[in-house]
C-alpha cells in the first residue's frame, strides 16, 4: 500500500486494464478491502462535488484477494484496519463485525460477479450495487457471500432489476468476465486493491494513501497511514473529464 502518485504507463488501446472509453474510470478492487472502501467512497463523493455525475462513470472490476492470496481475507486483519481507515474517511460507513464468526463472509466472488452482471443494466446500476454491497458489509455487518443478501441489497438500491440480476447469478453469465479481470490483474499488472486506470494509461494504486504495517503483517499487526492526499481524486476525475471532453470535441 505505497503507490500514491499519478503515473502514465506505456499502454496499448486494447490493454485489458484500461476502460473502453474516455468517460470511464476503471477501478480494480475487492469488496472486503478497507482501502478500496475509502477509495470508492472518495470517487463517488468527489464526482458529485465536481458536478461530473452522468458524465464520468466507474467501471468496478474484480481484484479478488482470495484468489491472489489463496485464502479468505481474514477477519483479524480486516478488523485491525477499521479503526485506522475509519478515522481516515468516517463517512464511508464502518462497524466492527457483530455476528458470530461462522456468519462472516468467506468469499466475495458472488458479490463481485453481481456487480459485473449489473453492468448489463447500465453503469449506474453497477455503481450503485457495488457501493451498496460495500456499505452492507462494512457498515451493516451483512454476509455479502450469500445470494439472498446480494439480491436484497440490490433491491434496496432502487436502480437494479433484481429479476435480471438473479438470472445472471444463477446462469453465471458474468463469471467469465470476473475471471478475465483477475487474469488481467495478475503478474503485478495491477498492484493492489484499489488500483485506478484512465483511458490514456494514467493510473494510481491506492490513490493518495501510503501506509505500512506495525507489529506484524496483515492479520497480526495493524496499518499505519504515512500520508493521505485525498486531493488526488480531484486530479483523477478532472483529468478523466478532460479526456472525455477531448474525445467529443468539447461538446
Automatic annotation (TrEMBL):
Single Gene Ontology MF annotation: oxidoreductase activity
UniProt cross-references to InterPro entries, sorted A to Z: DSBA-like_thioredoxin_dom, Thioredoxin-like_sf
Occurrences of domain DSBA-like thioredoxin (ranges): 24-200
Origin: domain of life: Bacteria
Protein name in the entry: DSBA-like thioredoxin domain-containing protein
SUPFAM superfamilies xref list: Thioredoxin-like
Amino acid at each position: 500500500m505505497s503507490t500514491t502518485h499519478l503515473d502514465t504507463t506505456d499502454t496499448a488501446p486494447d490493454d485489458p486494464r484500461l476502460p473502453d472509453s474516455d468517460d470511464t474510470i476503471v477501478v480494480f478492487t475487492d469488496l472486503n478491502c478497507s482501502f478500496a472502501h475509502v477509495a470508492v467512497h472518495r470517487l463517488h463523493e468527489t464526482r458529485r462535488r465536481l458536478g461530473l455525475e452522468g458524465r464520468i462513470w466507474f467501471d468496478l472490476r474484480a481484484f479478488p484477494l482470495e484468489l491472489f492470496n489463496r485464502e479468505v481475507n481474514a477477519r483479524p486483519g480486516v478488523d485491525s484496519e477499521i479503526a485506522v481507515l475509519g478515522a481516515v474517511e468516517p463517512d464511508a460507513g464502518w462497524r466492527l463485525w457483530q455476528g458470530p464468526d461462522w456468519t462472516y463472509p468467506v468469499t466475495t466472488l458472488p458479490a463481485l460477479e453481481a456487480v459485473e452482471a449489473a453492468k448489463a443494466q447500465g453503469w449506474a446500476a453497477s455503481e450503485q450495487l457495488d457501493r451498496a454491497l460495500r456499505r452492507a458489509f462494512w457498515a451493516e455487518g451483512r454476509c455479502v457471500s450469500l445470494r439472498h443478501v446480494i439480491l436484497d441489497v440490490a433491491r434496496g438500491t432502487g436502480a437494479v432489476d433484481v429479476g435480471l440480476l438473479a438470472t445472471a447469478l444463477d446462469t453465471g453469465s458474468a463469471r467469465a468476465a470476473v475471471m478475465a479481470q483477475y487474469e488481467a490483474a495478475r503478474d503485478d499488472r495491477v498492484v493492489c486493491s484499489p488500483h485506478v486506470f484512465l483511458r490514456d494509461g494514467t493510473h494510481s494504486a491506492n490513490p493518495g494513501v501510503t501506509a505500512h504495517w506495525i507489529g506484524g503483517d496483515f492479520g497480526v499487526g495493524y496499518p499505519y497511514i504515512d500520508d493521505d492526499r485525498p486531493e488526488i481524486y480531484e486530479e483523477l476525475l478532472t483529468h478523466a473529464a478532460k479526456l472525455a471532453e477531448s474525445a467529443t470535441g468539447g461538446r
